[in-house]
Amino acid sequence: MRCLASWDLTGFPHWLKKRRMAPNPKYQTPYIGTIVIAILSVVVTVAFESQIGALSSVVNFGALSSFLFLHLSVINYFMRKKQSKDYVKHLILPIIGFIIIGYVWINLDPLSKQLGFIWLGIGIVYLIVLKLMKRDTGLKLD
After folding, report:
1. 88 and 64 fall within a common domain
2. H/E element holding 16?
3. pLDDT tens digits for 66-100?
4. How far is 68 from 66, CA to CA, in rounded Å?
5. Residue 94 and residue 118 share a domain
6. 10, 12, 41, 43, 98 from 67: Cα distances, Å
7. Segment 19-60, tens digit of pLDDT
8. Do 62 and 92 sit in the same domain of this protein?
9. Is there a single domain that holds both residue 13 and residue 80?
10. Has this prediction a pTM greater than 0.70?
């Protein structure tokens, strides 16, 4: 859902841009965003039905890469910025998690890595284009 909240949504209907993260009155969950992601997932799955292995490879690459960066972020935030003294919780456990997920990431099949790096390259090119067009990407490098 955080990805949906951060999307630019250029070309999407105004009502969707405004309400994509609107909470459900009863459950307080982003129900419109959830429905949009569900529909998008079904469309992509149906469109790539014959290549479901490749599709899952990209998802695995992305998910594992995200968790690697999550572990590094925990260490950076708590140990460097907050100067935490809880070394087990904010240093040792994230390092162990990083090693385990890193091992799984290294052993991904070559197709996963190839498609994942292609997708990463497309994203970097898109970011550069947005920066050259002076569009706000929300990316802050502190």
Report:
1. yes
2. helix 14-19
3. 999 999 999 999 999 999 999 999 999 999 999 99
4. 5
5. yes
6. 28, 30, 21, 26, 8
7. 666 778 888 887 877 888 889 889 988 988 888 888 888 889
8. yes
9. no
10. no
Q: What's the token pair of residue 116?
A: 């994942």
Nearest partner of 59 among 119, 123, 124, 125, judged by Cα: 119
C-alpha closest to that of 108 among 61, 52, 56: 61
Q: Which two tokens stand for residue 12?
A: 């999407």
Measured in degrees and rounded to the nearest 5, phi and psi for residue 110 equal: -55, -35
Q: Is the dihedral of CA 61, 64, 66, 68 positive or negative?
A: negative
As given in the structure block, the two tokens for residue 114 are: 């190839």
| Residue 10, CB-side half-sphere exposure with 13 Å CA sphere | 5
C-alpha to C-alpha distance for 114 and 129, rounded to whole angstroms: 23
The pLDDT, as a whole number, for residue 28 is 82
> Phi, psi (5° rounding) for residue 30?
-75, 80
Taking CA atoms, 122 is separated from 9, 46, 115, 118, in Å, by: 17, 23, 11, 6
For residues 65 and 138, which has the higher predicted lDDT (pLDDT)?
65
Q: Enter the tokens of residue 142.
A: 């502190």
Domain that holds residue 113: 52-142
